[in-house]
User: What shape does this take?
Amino acid sequence: MTELNLKKEENIQQSLLSKFKTLEGKITVKRARRLFAEVDFSNFRDVFHYAVKDLNFNVMCMITGLDEGENFSFIYHLANFDGVILDVKTSVPKSNPVIKTIMEYFPGAVLYERELTDMFGVKVEGLPEGNRYPLPDGWPEGQYPLRKDWNKEMLNQKEEK
Amino acid sequence: MAIVKIPIGPQHPALKEPESFLISLDGERIQEVGMRLGYNHRGIEKAAEGRTYIQNIYLLERVCGICSHSHSTAFIQAVEEVAGIELSRRAKYIRTIMGELERIHSHLLWLGVAGHEVGFDTLLMYSWRDREIVMDLLAMISGNRVNYGMNTFGGVRRDIDKQKQQDILTAVDALEERTKYYAKVATEEITLIKRLSGVGYISKEDVYRLGTVGPTGRASGMPRDTRKDDPYAAYDEVDFNVITDNHCDVYGRTLVRVGELMETYKIIRQLIKNMPDGEIAVKFPRRVPAGEATSRYEAPRGEDVHYVKGNGTDKPERVKLRAPTLANLQSVSKMLEDNNLADVPITIAAIDPCFSCTDRMIRIVDNSKGSANTTDWETLRKKGIEWYRNEKGIDFTDLNKKYANIRKVD
Amino acid sequence: MGIASALFNIIVFPGFLFLGVMGLILEYLDRILYARFQNRQGPPFYQPLADFIKLTAKEEIIPEEADRRVFKFMPIIALTAATTAFFYIPMWGTSALFSFTGDVIVVLYLLTIPTVSFFLGGWSSTSMYASIGAVRTLTQLFSYEVLLFLGILSPMLLADTWSLSESTIYYQHHPVMMLLNIAAFAISMIALLGKLEKVPFDIAEAETEIVGGSFTEYTGRLLALFRMAIDVEMVVGASLIAAVFLPFGLMLNPVVAFILYLIKVCIIVFLLSLFRTLFARLRIDQMVSVCWKYFAPLALAQILFVMIVKGVFL
Assistant: This one.
């Protein structure tokens, strides 16, 4: 399957590269219908805007949060109607985990962003008031289950105090 | 009557899984919908990080009781992509057949639930009776009615031999006939149409904007089907249509699902006709190299997305998954706007939210002998029938005859 | 009439005991037919009785917010009113236990009381589901009650009487005249479905929407009484329709007439179960509009027809 022509994917790669020179070498075509781009946080907003508005990546599949030691990384899985997925990855330092919401592009992203808030302790600017997701209301503060240094014993310790 | 707030959930007869909808009502009209999710959060993503890949297959199969094959396939596809393993064609075919059989049972289940939500229990009883045909088929192939455990890295665990292929074809014929009947019911029964059409309307624009997936999106004219757009397994080798509809309401969703059932029968026939020979599984390394992959799978309810990151050990670094219900729930509050209270259950049900089923295989421990032996489904069923006949004087013979008549076996 | 015989009439026959047994039998019949239509096994014959006994043994829970007196009193009112109505309906003879000119109005009035008590019971329990169910009960009442009155009115007009017993006597002598009332018969059946809150008119207790409607907060003996009241209402409703629309064979030997009466009631229950199987639950607005747009004009046309026939040919 990988031997098939990847023209569609390479076109997308080319248009991203011609628009953003800094992305040189950071966009890879992994296989048919899979593109991967690693973007600096300062640049992320522009690339995202371009991908959504000009390259017609109209579907946001999900946002994956990653704990990579020093940094938190976020992968925005974007898809278009040709079945191509563009994974846009960006990172912020753990010391100051603040990102901006993408709700103006995808109103449905609210749940994924709330999930980042709950599971990683990332602050997402611009999220509307509302119920938390997915952890229960009585969940102790400062406990972020998907951080690598978290384990369930920490929850018990907290409760004992 | 002043504006009242009425809670639908977390526990409510209309919901099969805990979710909470707080609905403000002016008389019977819905003013506002509040949603609180997460009651069913089981920490599977975290749990997956602490388990080996093999354990994770079975863990992720239990994300959902109905689309269990979907989740395990989506996960395994991602891992196989990371490891760079190419499957045999036969394994792909078997996976696809399982996926399509699962779609049949899920859609028939939905039809019944939809009937129940609008107070049409007859439809529930009929469609669930017919669903037994495909459930038995799944049990015959995999040994289980749900959570089949068919998938393994590099292929599948059980083969579908000639005899089973023949059984599948017979069952599919019977199911097709029944589905035609349901299509007729859905399009001709007045009260059903009255309850379904115009309910839970969501426009094409909103569907695109909110990222709705699966039959819910397709019923609003969005021709998006992962099987077609991003073919996986054997879908690039079969010919089928993506069913869409322009009703944009629950009626449209019903038509799409019934239409999809017909396409599914077509797919299964093609798959069985062209089933290639070969190994059902290839060897798979215990350690998966570092790397990441995103995989998509068109589950009965919509698109499953899995992301897997490996770090060179036998445990994944990160597993992230998104079930279709999450994507669709966000459109529910839109659909509920300005509807009647009576339409809440069917509107929520129309996106087909997932809920868990239980396995039906049990282990019976014989205390006198102290040995454990496993009883299969057929023996259990016989035992149940015997028990009812002898102890309760209830005879199922008549019903069984009718049932056998439908499935065209003795 | 002596006190002893009056007590016998009230408690044993055709009072509470007979009606209770009859109600349970009809409930069983309804359930087993419904199950068989749906390709299910259905309950054993003693299931309704077992349910009743089980419920009476259960704890009674009354919500703190509820008006205790109204809450406890309503099931009894519902049962009593439905039972009382039964005394005026001729079953296996041309005359009922009691009869007087205008008793048909009393029967219809007494049959309305259970519905009103469902409303009051639900409303007084203050639960949100029950309140919505209660309001729906009333809304429903306005759509089917008029239909039932209009439906029963037509054969009465034809017989030129306001007494159920007299009307049966009239149709004994002119059985063919009954054929003129077929539309009224259909309309009364539909209204009865609404009165008994059965699919497609079970809007007031739609379990997937408002859990149990008016009865959400009811438990134990009170719920058992309410359910018994609905069963008795089914007997009375079916008997009323049998007496008004199927008054055949009443002059025969009492035993034969009694068996005939049972058969008639069974036929009516069979029809009710059939409708229940065939349709989905309507929405409250749909029910109101269907009843007023289609059935009410039909009922009026029937009455007009009867009056013309009466004026021109009789």
User: Anything to note?
Assistant: Residues 89-117 of chain B form the longest helix (29 residues). Chain B has a mean pLDDT of 81. Chain B is about 50% helix and 15% strand. The two ends of chain B are 59 Å apart (CA to CA).
